[in-house]
Design goal:
The chain is mainly alpha-helical and 204 residues long. It has helices spanning 3-11, 14-22, 27-48, 51-67, 79-97, 124-143, 146-157, 162-169, 173-194, 199-202; strands spanning 103-107, 114-118.
């Protein structure tokens, strides 16, 4: 193939590459891997904290992209979000499968509103409170507008910075910051409405 032909392939949009992949072509897989393997690896590594396992998950993610190419619909969202969604779910599955440290979402102030922390092995009262808070957080996330929910999930569950979210979703950085601020305000208001303080505070 000519150099010009190779350049045309490299310049093809993600949607075009996925369409070619769904049609049975194999070459788009290499282009997509070159574009996104580093991003996927970075995200997965932040979840697993294990380089070898992260590398394995990256390979599995792109196998799933290849096999699931026909399910990608460009009109319903961009490829990056679709890919990172696959990567996030696969990394979480691996974390659970390996029996690594359990993680729970907790609400704190400012931009650290959601973060993952090890579960310390709580007693019955603490476990009940954590379960209630998990449900409240999931419900609060579900009620967010799609673009705000996506921003929060990519940041706190995907481990991406706001600049990385902007770069890889094609969204202006200012818009990402606004979505994050509005989302955190809504999450905070929802949890305050639920009056989910810590067990110690609630018992006083």
């Amino acid at each position: 193939m000519s150099k010009q032909g190779l350049n045309l392939r490299d310049d093809a949009s993600d949607a075009d590459l996925m369409a070619q992949l769904a049609a049975g072509e194999r070459w788009p897989m290499g282009v997509l891997y070159d574009r996104y393997a580093r991003l996927v690896y970075s995200m997965v590594l932040k979840i697993l904290h294990d380089q070898e396992r992260a590398e394995d998950v990256v390979q599995e993610v792109f196998v799933r992209v290849w096999r699931g190419a026909g399910s990608f619909q460009a009109g319903r969202g961009n490829f990056t979000n679709w890919l990172l969604g696959i990567a996030h779910h696969r990394a979480i599955d691996e974390l659970r499968r390996q029996g690594s440290q359990q993680r729970r979402a907790v609400f704190v102030d400012d931009e650290n509103a959601l973060r993952s922390v090890p579960d310390p092995g709580e007693g019955p009262a603490e476990a009940a409170w954590i379960a209630q808070k998990r449900l409240a957080i999931r419900e609060a996330l579900r009620q967010l507008p799609a673009e705000q929910r996506q921003t929060v999930e990519l940041a706190y569950f995907g481990g991406l910075t706001q600049r990385e979210i902007a770069e890889h979703t094609g969204t202006p950085l200012g818009t990402v910051k606004t979505r994050m601020r509005l989302a955190l305000q809504k999450l905070r208001n929802h949890l305050e409405k639920e009056e989910l303080g810590s067990p110690a505070l609630s018992s006083e």
